[in-house]
Amino acid sequence: MELTGARVLAHRAAVQGLHGDQVGRDQAVLALGVVDSPPKTGAAALGVRGRREGTEDLARVLSLRGAPHLHRREDLPALRRQLRPRTEKQLAAWCGTYPPPDLEHVDLVVDLMHREFPGDTATKGELSAAISPLLPAIATPYCPGCETDHVIENLFRLGTLLAGIELEQLGAKLTFRRPKAKPEREEPGEPTLLRDYARLVGPFAKADAEKWLGAGPQDNWPDLRPVRVDGKRLLVHEDDLGLIAGSAGGEAPDPPAGLLLFPRDPYLLGPRHLVADPDVARQVWRPVGSPGALVLHGRVAGAWRHEFSGRTVTFQVTGWSKVRGAARKAIKDQAAVLAGVWGADVLEADVVEW
Fold first, then answer.
1. Which residue, 166, 181, 158, is CA-closest to 80?
2. Exposure letters 105-126 (e unless 16+ CB within 10 A, then b)
């Protein structure tokens, strides 16, 4: 079957609630988790989808790729099940350039985090220092940056998730809360995360999904079938095809005229060529310090940054002087939404040319 990129993005915007039709309901994108680094970027992603209350009811944990994410607590068992490495190759994906330890050492890290957790809260450095001396040498290689031996960084991050350890909601430093109870070890089951990825992102390549998951090569995929999107071969779940094509329940509306998204927003997952031309992608997705993504009529058209001064948050937007009509109004509305998420009723938004 042939699909157009425009149809795929219209479906993605609709199913992810970017028309604001999920106000007052548990938001669909939370099935994927929402990146929350720096803090409050997760609240921003939910804010542009209609959520105005805080995120205190959500769990903030180190999850996909070891990054801070917001998740529903009831989704954490499935998250732990699918991110737990079960092969040497999957564990190697977490360990990066370091030789992976034995799979049994993952459980040792989890056990030590419960037994040795220092105090009611602990920074990453404090918790790492508490468990590293009790681990075998292969799990605690020399770190040139820290000039000491300590547990492999992403093995540590994975261990906090498997141990049921949550992060404090705010703060630039990673600060962990003492876990209440050690979760039971989940056995392999349905690939629920990958199914949700297919449902909420639409047609994708397996490499896109595995990069997002960050858990090594997967051998348990949901039922997928090939399609072509703007002439390129991708995969889609059979149950979603009719919705994306518009043959089941009618076509989704066009994407919103204007959006201010952070570069790891769920809307921007999947094949990058569907959302951005190469020259624009280079502006937004950088190795360090990526700006936000200015999205006009479904595609990334430029970048934006923000800064606070007194009671004003100023949004600097590339090409702002050329944004007209419905898109200009939508971006002003987005800026006001983000100001409200970050500063309740005390911040005003201003949009200027970058």
1. 158
2. bbebbbebbeeebeeeebbbee
Enclosing H/E stretch for 303: strand 299-309
Contacts of 293 (CB under 8 A, 6+ apart): 259, 260, 261, 262, 263, 265, 268, 276, 284, 300, 303, 304
Decide if pLDDT at 24 tops 60: no
Lowest mean per-residue pLDDT among 193-197, 201-205, 240-244: 240-244
* Parallel/antiparallel/unpaired status of strands 142-143 and 312-317: unpaired
Cβ distance 260 to 268 under 8 Å?
A: no
Other Cβ atoms within 10 Å of 307 Cβ, number: 9
Residue 191 carries which side chain, given as an amino acid letter?
P
The whole-angstrom separation of Cα 255 and Cα 49 is 13
Q: Is the peptide bond before 118 cis (omega within 30 degrees of 0)?
A: no
How do 68-71 and 59-62 pair as beta strands?
A: antiparallel
**CA-CA distance, 193 to 187, in Å (whole number)?**
15
Q: Is the pTM of this model over 0.70?
A: yes
pLDDT of 346 reads: 81
